[in-house]
Design a protein that fits this description.
The complex is a heterodimer of chains A (418) and B (122). By secondary structure, chain A is an alpha/beta fold. Chain A has 18 helices and 21 strands. The radius of gyration of chain A is 22 Å and the shape is globular. Classes of the chains: A alpha/beta (418), B alpha/beta (122). The structure holds iron/sulfur cluster. Chain B: Keywords: Oxidoreductase.
Chain lengths: 418, 122
């Protein structure tokens, strides 16, 4: 059994073990076990369905990227920072657009942070201090299964001695698995997050609201929640895609941040997104430290410009604004709206990924890669921005994303200079 | 036929199979729709039946099952089936509306497409 760091979800659990020979693990949740387990792989690099060498596939990929007018380089949430860095540099060189999985996930939160900032904290602080935890539109038991035990519900810490020291609330439109571990479940109508947060802001300020209910929640219940929030010593809202993917999107998060700012006049509260993929934070942080923006970055003029309305992957595809696409460690053909996928079918697509997926089915160039955290190492950001170095447990025939992208960058530079 | 609001989201089975998208297990994990018990009965459904979900953005046939959702709300796991019907307008944010899209659900005899058929590729 070797010590490992799990590369599935944003928890990036650094206390797990796995034995590649027996395929057995310790401390891994069901999702982590599925991640480490051996499964079908893309066997060889391919160009138009024909098996080729890594060098030939990379050559073809570079040819596509260099001759495209506006290539879209997308994905990045399931690889390491070192690979993402080469990806950003590559996008700049080919004057393309860099976008990453957050643009269909937590990016509305980024827009809110640009407006309001974020009163945040680490998972360690939550574990040690939080006596009130609200999961809002997030479902940790199905998306981040060990979050409750390691940090937020059952976790014991410095000031939190046992589960009873912590009040747990789940706010959601449906009774999720996570609702069952909460002290209180508040069921809201879809699309009413903004209105409910506004009501809580008013009530926390001591103002009255005229309506008897907001978004399906009786006023008394909201007043009670506002009171409980004010009387907590250290509270946290962990929000999920229920907030960012429904009506209001970035404005929902912005309103929630304002609620937290208000609560901080009385006590200590933080708010934090439940980031999904193990390094989706890196997919935003790396371009942020390289070129200043997190996603939706266009380099077509030779300098970076940020505009999600124009340069996010879905918008680019809906407007048929890109004429080639590189997809790294992601599966937009499965996760984008139908109409966006239609354009992917019409342009050359290059894929770098360990596993065959729906994007493989429409890719012209397919380059298999090593699985980070099992066959390749590198740095990643946990959901709260803590950097961890994921381990390589076993040698493999596959090149790492880092090596593939570095090679691509070198050849692009040669071609552009020559 | 009933009018519904459609939401999509993660499930454990979707997560467990997300790196095996061309497998039967993934197909099973994402090609269904959870319906409130009362609505399920109103549609005359039984286990194993299929429904057609329609919105202004598209339509899809999925398996129907009873789930912990309120009346008038249906849940489809995130993935290619949900993405046939969710809203692709992003209101300038870049983010499609994956949750809270109005549409209809009706019983159907049509079969559920495989992920390949859904994508329209060989
Ligand atoms: S909670 Fe997330 S990081 Fe931890 S073992 Fe499970 S999948 Fe891996």
């Amino acid at each position: 059994m070797a010590y490992a760091i799990c590369t599935f979800c944003g928890n990036v659990c650094d206390d797990v073990e796995f034995d590649v020979n027996t395929q057995k693990g310790k401390k891994l949740c069901a999702l982590g076990l599925a991640k480490f387990r051996e499964k079908e792989r893309i066997k060889s690099p391919m160009v138009d369905g024909k098996e080729v060498s890594y060098e030939e596939a990379i050559e073809k990929a570079v040819e596509i990227l260099v001759s495209a007018k506006k290539p879209l380089l997308y994905g990045w949430a399931s690889t390491v920072n070192e690979a993402i860095r080469y990806g950003v540099l590559l996008t700049e060189k080919v004057r393309g657009v860099y976008d990453q999985c957050a643009s269909v996930c937590h990016a509305p939160g980024t827009l809110a942070v640009i407006e309001e900032g974020i009163p945040g904290g680490s998972l360690g602080a939550v574990k040690n201090r939080a006596d009130m935890v609200i999961f809002w539109g997030s479902n940790p038991l199905e998306a981040h299964p060990r979050h409750p035990t390691r940090y937020s519900v059952m976790a014991k810490g410095f000031l939190i001695k046992n589960r009873k020291d912590r009040k747990v609330v789940v706010v959601d439109v449906r009774k999720t698995k996570s609702a069952s571990m909460a002290d209180k479940f508040i069921q809201i109508r879809p699309g009413y997050d903004y209105a409910i947060i506004s009501a809580l802001r008013a009530l926390a300020k001591g103002e009255d609201i005229e309506a008897d209910e907001v978004g399906g929640v009786p006023k008394e219940e909201l007043a009670e929640l506002a009171e409980e929030m004010k009387s907590a010593k250290y509270g946290v809202i962990f929000y999920g895609l229920g907030v960012t993917q429904s009506r209001g999107r970035d404005r929902n998060v912005e309103n929630a941040v304002k609620l937290i700012q208000l609560l901080n006049r009385y006590t200590r509260w933080i708010i934090w997104p439940m980031r999904g993929h193990y390094n989706v934070v890196g997919a935003g942080e790396v371009p942020a430290w390289e070129v200043g923006y997190q996603y939706g970055i266009d380099f077509s003029r030779g300098y970076p410009r940020f505009s999600p309305a124009e340069f996010s992957a879905v918008e680019m595809l809906l407007r048929r604004d890109c004429d080639a696409m590189l997809v790294v460690s992601s599966d937009p053909a499965a996760h984008f709206p139908r109409k966006a996928v239609e354009h992917m079918k019409k342009i050359p697509v290059i894929q770098i990924d360990p596993f065959p997926n729906m994007t493989t089915l429409l890719s012209n160039v397919v380059i298999p890669s090593a699985v980070a955290g099992i066959e390749a190492e590198g740095n990643v950001y946990r959901m709260d921005g803590i950097v961890l170095r994921v381990k390589k447990l076993v040698d493999s025939q596959y090149w790492s994303d880092e090596k593939i992208l570095h090679e691509m960058l070198k050849i692009v530079e040669e071609k552009l200079e020559g | 036929m009933i009018e519904v609001e459609i939401i999509s989201g993660r499930t454990i089975d979707q997560g467990k199979t997300v790196e095996e998208k061309l497998s039967d297990a993934y197909f099973k994990a994402v090609s269904y729709c959870e319906i409130n018990e009362e609505d399920f009965r109103k549609l005359g459904l039984k286990d194993g039946d299929r429904v057609k979900v329609k919105t202004e953005f598209g339509e899809v046939v999925v398996f129907a099952r009873v789930g912990e959702v309120p009346k008038g709300v249906v849940f489809i796991p995130m993935g290619p089936y949900a993405n046939q019907v969710i809203a692709d307008d992003t209101d300038g944010t870049g983010m499609p509306r994956f949750k809270g899209v109005r549409g209809t659900v009706e019983k159907t005899d049509e079969s559920v497409k495989s992920v390949k058929e859904l994508l329209g590729v060989e």
